[in-house]
Write a structure and sequence with these properties.
Residues 117-140, 803-824 are annotated as: Disordered. With 824 residues, this protein is an alpha+beta fold. It has 21 helices and 37 strands. It has an eight-stranded mixed sheet with strand order 9-8-12-4-3-18-22-20. A six-stranded mixed sheet has the order 21-24-25-26-28-27, with helices on both faces.
């Protein structure tokens, strides 16, 4: 490493270190008035602590939340693809307020063509689920996908949204008003604090085809199954009118459902009966109450055996599911499930399902959990091998970091939804591929996808199904925290799988121009995946591994989870708990990672190697002479010397004087007398300090750093020495507290530890977006180059249309003949 050498002088009165370097050294790149305190306290933007939420991040001594209980009777009409149901709701007002009306969520109304979601969907842009893309230039057409056209056709051909038939209380009609995906019910009389009200809703709706509209629930049709008319898988969620949350921080959370911001709900007890075709298998939130009515004795025996089995046991085998697929029936069965203290209810129904299960033993009140999977033949060996085992693995890891799983079942169901979570049940999409020989195979990516999505969706039982955050407002509080934990669980399963939670996984997003703060409301986020999943997960990963360390982080994170079990935390509760329980001020971290669009880019700009002046002129002046001689020889002087040109003073010796044999580094007795006076004036401790420092003759390296990204972070250094050894130095982020744009740091090494290079963040721990300015000296940037052959342009102007016009038009008969020859 070529450093910039300079001297380090003693300032006698205080024996401080005074560095003589160029004027740019350690300069703070700051103009008058533009200083920003990256470490100011976050309380200025967080809500003021109160009796409901205290300053430590805990629920306050007057914390409250509502409870809503449901009794639902539903009928699935497979042919009409429709649900008709009635529900009896008991609303418990635990708030200190008197309520004159209640707000109900009607999420199925999102699919109406006059919904706010449909009317505000943009063409192209950053909607994430947008139907098309705009043209890049005037001479190219805009693009509208066939999937978007299919969705338009489905919405046009079906009457979608909830059909509310009646709303009654004690037999009397209640007045209601539907506002988009919400319904206000006006109560017959005000509901006072501590009181409850009962009312009923009769309703129905046509189920959407998930593949057509891209929803969080719906049906999938299999026309090629052997049963006449094919078969279906029904995934039912957001399927009943349910109470919006009433909270201490916002009152009614009645923000329109636009499709991205998920659901803010109340806990309650559910008693749900679902009447379905008699040959269907049903998976649902809760515990089956009438197994003798819907399961065979063999299935019940297998279910009992699965409770203590070491590997999953089939309750419905593949062979039985395949036989189920062929027939069909006009008869029905009613499956009844109960679930206590859950914030939602979802279910799935199909005759295609095979079903396996395995019991899990754990500590805590819920000592036994049934991990179960439901999937069709299309799931194949992929689901047989991995789904239920991934459920078990998820519970094992998440329990360590939070609390023991509080529910009796944890289920994974295969259907058209790629990944969606509900209490005790999740919908997961990966499948196998049917090959020509009749076998079913899957790719490495499908295997990774299944394991990852099961861990993620089952993990959502902890966040937000138990730790009940407001998903519509703060998506990151469930997706980000859960993505962090699914990364922990995933890497304990197979670290070779790219889990997307490493610091390097977010640098592209953080340096991009379309980043928005993590604290942005869900529907306004431009890129939801990087913003609500990856960035907060990476932030927590860095907080655990780099800033707090595992011991402090794990204690604080578990404290947060246990404090807010079955309660509704806000971001301030999370931030305050993590600080209060870890004992570390993290306001700078929350502000930078969650409230700004700053990114991490720490550059090491210069390294100066300093040597301590001894103040002894016989030593210091000789060192300066050697440093002068070390400078490159002038090119003119070198060429004159090579040409044999003799200097004038060497040609005429008689003109030489004192300065031809003595230079500015010559030591005089006056210098020596001054040195003696310097020593004489030192206090004993000062002389001892100086003599030790001169004796040790250590290396003093001053390093200049710039914060180019704006996000303050620890400076992590790897020092490489001439003897082949390495040393790590970890400088806390607080080094930037007075100078957030540029800082300098003194590193002292022993005389024999000669520094040759420095690397910032060598293990890519901090999500630094530009690793090339992390090296001093700068390295040659490694990359690749590929040889290629020039190709003609791809436009039609370069196509041989004259030749192409000679091609014969093929017919369907040609395709059939080709297939017949292939079969032969």
């Amino acid at each position: 490493m070529r450093t910039r050498p300079t001297r380090l002088l003693w300032l006698a009165p205080v024996l401080g270190l005074l560095v003589h370097v160029p004027a740019t050294y350690a300069a703070i790149q700051q103009t008058k008035g533009d200083f920003e305190d990256k470490f100011r306290q976050l309380d200025e933007v967080l809500p003021t602590p109160n009796v409901y939420r205290n300053a430590a991040g805990e629920a306050g001594h007057q914390y409250w939340q509502q409870q809503v209980d449901y009794v639902i009777n539903a009928k699935l009409d497979e042919n009409k693809k429709r649900i008709d149901a009635s529900e009896k709701i008991t609303y418990h007002n635990n708030s200190p307020d008197t309520l004159k009306y209640l707000w109900i969520q009607l999420d199925q109304n999102k699919f109406r063509p006059d919904s706010m979601s449909a009317l505000t969907e943009t063409f192209g842009g950053n909607s994430g689920r947008g139907p098309a893309s705009q043209s890049a230039s005037d001479d190219k057409p805009a693009k509208l996908s066939l999937g978007a056209l299919r969705r338009q056709h489905f919405v046009a051909d079906h009457e979608l949204g909830f059909q509310i038939n009646s709303v009654k209380s004690d037999g009397d009609d209640l007045h209601y008003v539907i506002v988009g995906t919400l319904m206000r019910i006006d109560l017959a009389e005000p509901l006072k604090s501590g009181k409850s009200v009962k009312f009923s809703i009769d309703y129905g709706y046509n189920i959407v085809e998930e593949d057509a509209v891209s929803a969080r629930s719906g049906y999938e049709h299999f026309p090629d199954d052997k049963r006449e008319g094919g078969n279906d898988i029904f995934l039912l969620a957001q399927w009943f009118p349910r109470l919006a949350a009433y909270t201490d921080y916002e009152a009614w959370t009645n923000k329109e459902f636009l499709g991205r911001g998920e659901f803010t709900l109340e806990f309650g007890n559910y008693d749900v009966s679902m009447t379905v075709p008699a040959d269907h298998i049903v998976s649902a939130t809760g515990v089956l109450q009438n197994p003798k009515d819907v399961l065979t004795s063999t299935q019940r025996d297998r279910l009992e055996q699965a409770k203590t089995a070491k590997r999953p046991v089939f309750i419905v085998t593949e062979e039985e599911a395949l036989e189920n697929e062929k027939a069909g029936t006009d008869k029905t069965k009613t499956w009844r499930f109960k679930a206590d203290n859950v914030r939602d209810f979802a279910w799935a129904s199909s005759r295609k399902f095979m079903w396996d299960a395995k019991g899990v033993e754990q500590g805590g009140p819920q000592k036994h959990v049934m991990a179960m999977s439901f999937y069709p033949k299309e799931g194949g060996d992929l689901w047989k091998k991995y789904s239920t085992e991934a459920v078990v693995h998820t519970l094992d890891v998440y329990n360590r970091f939070t609390f023991n799983y509080p529910y009796p079942t944890a289920q994974s169901v295969n259907g058209p939804v790629g990944g969606m979570e509900y209490p005790m049940i999740s919908f997961n999409g990966p499948r196998t591929e049917l090959q020509d020989d009749g076998s079913r195979t899957y790719s490495l990516s499908e295997k990774r996808f299944l394991i990852g999505v099961v861990i993620h969706e089952v993990g959502h039982n902890y966040f937000p199904m138990v730790v009940n955050s407001d998903e519509r407002q703060w998506t990151w509080m469930d997706e980000g925290l859960n993505s962090f934990l699914d990364g922990v669980a995933g890497r304990e399963w197979d670290p070779k799988i790219p889990w997307g939670v490493e610091p390097r996984d977010v640098v592209g997003y953080m340096k991009g121009s379309s980043q928005v703060p993590v604290m942005t409301q869900s529907d306004s986020v431009l890129h939801l995946g990087p913003n609500a999943y990856t960035k907060p997960a990476v932030a927590l990963n860095i907080l655990r591994e780099t800033i707090l360390g595992r011991e402090l982080f794990d204690f604080a994170f578990k404290e947060y989870a246990q404090r807010w079990m079955f309660k509704r935390p806000t971001p301030s509760d999370f931030f305050r708990t993590m600080e209060e329980a870890s004992g570390v001020d993290l306001d700078w971290f929350w502000r930078g990672w969650f409230y700004t669009t700053d990114h991490v880019d720490i550059s090491i700009d210069r390294v100066y190697k300093l040597r301590l002046d001894t103040e002894n002129p016989d030593i210091d002046l000789q060192r300066q002479r050697e440093a002068e001689l070390d400078k490159p020889l002038s090119l003119t002087d070198e060429r004159n010397r090579n040409e044999g040109r003799k200097l004038w003073v060497d040609r005429f010796e008689d003109i030489k004087d004192f300065y031809d044999t003595n230079d500015q580094f010559t030591v005089t007795n006056k210098d020596r007398n001054k040195y003696r006076e310097f020593l004489k004036d030192l206090e004993p401790w000062e002389r001892q300090t100086l003599e030790r420092a001169v004796r040790e003759d250590k290396n003093y390296y001053v390093m200049d750093f710039s914060n180019l990204g704006g996000l303050v972070m620890p400076i992590l250094l790897e020092l490489d020495f001439a003897d082949g050894t390495k040393e790590s130095v970890r400088i806390p982020a607080e080094i930037w507290r007075r100078s957030p744009k540029a800082v300098s740091k003194l590193i002292v090494t022993d005389k024999d530890k000669e520094l040759v290079s420095v690397t910032v963040d060598p293990r890519w721990e901090t999500a630094d977006v530009d690793v090339e300015n992390n090296y001093y000296p700068r390295r040659i940037i490694p990359s690749r180059i590929e040889a290629y052959k020039d190709k003609k342009g791809d436009g039609r102007v370069n196509m041989d249309l004259m030749q192409d016009s000679k091609a014969e038009l093929k017919t369907e008969d040609d395709d059939k003949n080709k297939d017949a020859k292939h079969d032969e």
